[in-house]
Amino acid sequence: QVQLVESGGGLVQAGGSLRLSCTVSGRTFSIYRMGWFRRAPGKEREFVASLNWSGDSIVYADSVKGRFTISRDAAKNTLYLQMNSLKPEDTADYYCALSPRITLGFNTWGQGTPVTVSS
Description:
The chain has about 120 residues and is an all-beta fold. Strands 2, 4, 5, 6, 9, 10 and 11 form a seven-stranded mixed sheet that branches. It has a four-stranded antiparallel sheet with strand order 1-3-8-7, with no helix packed on it. β7 and β8 form a beta hairpin.
């Protein structure tokens, strides 16, 4: 089994920055791709960013492109999301997710970490 634990959320003013972390434990040899998703109050979950665990094939949602940066430290089994120029509309619970192989989607999720951006 693989477990994901997010951290780094909090309250920040518009224009500020936060860095989210997602630590992977358990069967860490079985990681193909990881990503960040978010769910704002009253809205559906939406994709934010993802990458292959090798570090390539990085994809961003248009809404965060140029402001957010996804990265990973394979030695630490940790995924990051650097969020700059935050906007009130970025307020949401942020979740990391893992896909164990190319034939599977994201099937393992963390518990989420809340981000609140005040105007």
